[in-house]
Amino acid sequence: MLDTPNIDTIFQQANYRTMDFSVIEDVINSTPPLVLAGTVGVIGLFSGLWLCFVYLSLFTGSKHKHDVDLKFENGLSYTFPFRVMKEGATYSTLIRALSEHVRSRVVVIYKKWILFGDELWWVGHPAIAEHVFSPSQSKNWFKLDKTETNKAFYLNESKQAQRTAMLYTGDDQRWRTARYHLSPYFYNSDFSKLDKKMSNIVKKHIERIVTENKGETELLELCLFITIDLLCQVLYDSALNEEDLTLLTYCMAEYIVPGTKYRGKYPEGMNCLQYHTKVAIDMTKDAPAGTVAGIIRDCPDMSDSLKNENVAFFLEALTPAFASFWTISNVLLMTDQESREKARNNATFRQQCIKESLRMYPPVPILWPRQAKRTHTMTNPIYNEDKPKQKRSLFQKIMGIVPFEDQPELKIKKGTKIFIFPSVLHYDDRFWFQPNDFKPDRWDKEPEVLADESNSAKIQTRRRQSQAPGLFGKMKDTLGSARNLQSMKGKAQKFFDKDDTLRSMIVGKDTESMQAEATFDQILEATDDRVGELQKWTFLPFGLGQHTCMGRRLAIRMVDNIVQTMLNSDVMFYKGVIPSLFSRKQWHERVEAVAAVYNFPADPVFVQVKTSAKMRAQYGQSFYRKSVVLPGDGGKKDITVTDDDYSDEE
Asked: I want to staple 581 with a disulfide (CB 3.0 to 4.6 A). Which of 154, 278, 450, 603 is the partner?
């Protein structure tokens, strides 16, 4: 019979300590049974009530409603994490659920461990974004790095997965070093000198599509090929051959979509991160001084490993591909031929289209979180001292809870982590008029996405708007041409004070009065006296504050070249049919949040470029599969599109 070690020996060898329950037993035995039963009963009662509250919050009262339509809830919520988990486990459903819960609120808060731990704030009001990102508040906040961000979601990261490129670091010296050396290039360069070079690169890819595939392609795929080629030639001054560029494009597509089923086979058994890092390092060796790659290579303050990570990072800067995709799609959706031509020929209007696309489809789903360095307070943006205070429940009185709307200040504890979703603020109808609609003319007063020149390398937020074009750009359709806030409030009051209207005759005066009051409250809230000032904190496609994307000016220049060249190449939806992405889905269903990097279009969009004159004539007269009559046909002949039409010569 084999010798078996004593169980106590095993525990000792494993450095385990057996728990001594004698103290607990003594406490229980010395407690009077009545007191013990009462204590257990109270704990059980509160636990049961809390579980019932969680169940009711999750599974009742929300049928056929968006979360934003549910009872307005701000501040600490113990059910919020469960509501989010109910939506599903994918990153995309997580972002979508959070966006719906947070939209139109001020802030929703929960604790890291549900009942205790640091607070996580999900921001729904620009006043908090202002408080986090404004230069005057920089002393109160720091940006989390990739590892710390994962820990906020209870995930620990292996050392092999930790990234030290400037995007993935916080406010430490690594980030400051990279920013110091690269800022002069990104902020002071005249990128207009690159227009001809970038335009020729775009034309090369369009000609390739025409030669290889009769001008037919999936739009995002083409935009990705073009963007990666632009990055290689502009930032590294390296033109890859077609085979290497194709492999790199597939590699980057795999890298930015970690959950993709595609797993490329790269040389020497490398994965996508290793391969694109190797390509970046190889291009950097021969990069001229003064290029981004050359600046990093010659930087005296970076270690070799940090240089390698940073040169690889710039191949991941694929924002121009997604911004171009949405801008081209939105221009093609314009039913007004004059507007489409204006986007082709008018640089200012094209900038407005790009800006509106970035608002509707911000490239990044979520900004890197900020964490409070110290405990401090900020003004509650919805507190009104003249408004009657809410009646508190007995529980609120016992626990000393003050309703959120009645708190003059919000307390931000040290360690609090702030998360901001650009789409939440981009679609807030308190600050944007008809936010679900593509309206380039809402930017009439401020067409540029970003100024093309900068006096210094300091980070600057969007220029202050004096007349809040985002909100009031189309308000004259219903409330007259008022631009002044007070004047608009007056017109709104008169509009809703009418006694007898057609609507009141149909639905009843009481019902109409209730609906008008709700609408008027929304208008008054949207036209708060600070709306013009706050609105600049509701547009953040590239982030805000000192960690704003450095390459945003160059990125927009790339987008403008891609969009203009594609429009000049007579791009059109394949056979003139609107993709299901736009015809059957709401804005929030059109995007899939891919990891923490990009908002990916949910469905493919197929296009044609360099089409025949006959096809363009048909497309110009027929919007999306409607029959048309061409001049000279006697009003009897319907035009139908066949595959043969695609080979017609001009």
From this structure: 603
